[in-house]
Amino acid sequence: MTLEALQLNISSGMVTASRHWRRICQTTLANYGISEACAVPLLMIVRLGDGVRQVAVAQAAGLESPSLVRLLDQLCRAGFVCRSEDPDDRRAKALSLTPRGRELAEAIESELVRLRREVLQDISPADLEAALRVVRAFEEAGRHSQSEQSSGASS
């Protein structure tokens, strides 16, 4: 296969694979009664640790702040997350999971670990590392494009 064909297959395949993986995850999340949109910040909080700043969760989740605020409102109303003033910066909000939220996040995370193991069981660590380099290249291109658009908009 030519380099151009490989690049086409990778870029197209990532879109398709992403759709399939999201569908698998959505089915799993539905079993827990939570949407993918709400699960993302919930999982980011458990991964980043209690007391994490709201802006750090937004960055880790790839969300704009207003979108995250709406999701956090839902998670707080459902009793999964609590917001507080950041002790180091009263302007910032710190996020923590409630016991109920931690239980849900850990159950979801455990199921996602199982799913990843199942899907990737026949892929060698070297192949996973190569795939991760490819994903990172696309992530970096997206960040670069976004920063160019932001700087162009402010000119």
Can you walk me through this structure?
This protein is mainly alpha-helical and 155 residues long. It has 2 domains: 33-122, Arc Repressor Mutant, subunit A (Orthogonal Bundle); 123-155. The chain contains 6 helices and 3 strands, in the order ααβααββαα. A 3-stranded antiparallel beta sheet has the order 1-3-2. A hairpin with a 2-residue loop joins strand 2 (81-86) and strand 3 (89-97). The protein is globular and about 55 Å long.
Distance N to C terminus:
43 Å
Summarize the main sheet: 3 strands, antiparallel
**CATH classification class of the largest domain:** Mainly Alpha
From the alpha-carbon coordinates, what is the Rg to the nearest angstrom? 18 Å
Q: What sort of overall outline do the alpha carbons produce when their principal axes are compared? A: globular
| Contiguous uncertain segments of 5+ residues | none
The proportion of residues in beta strands is: 5-15%
Strand order of the largest sheet: 1-3-2
CATH topology of the largest domain: Arc Repressor Mutant, subunit A
Q: Quickly count the domains.
A: 2
Please tally the β strands and state the result: 3
Q: Provide the CATH superfamily of the largest domain.
A: Winged helix-like DNA-binding domain superfamily/Winged helix DNA-binding domain
What is the H/E order? HHEHHEEHH
The residue-averaged pLDDT reads 91
Counting helices, strands and paired strands, the structural category is mainly alpha
- Helix count equals 6
Protein name: MarR family transcriptional regulator
InterPro entries: HTH_MarR-typ (IPR000835), MarR/SlyA-like (IPR039422), WH-like_DNA-bd_sf (IPR036388), WH_DNA-bd_sf (IPR036390)
GO molecular function: DNA binding; DNA-binding transcription factor activity
GO biological process, one term: response to stress
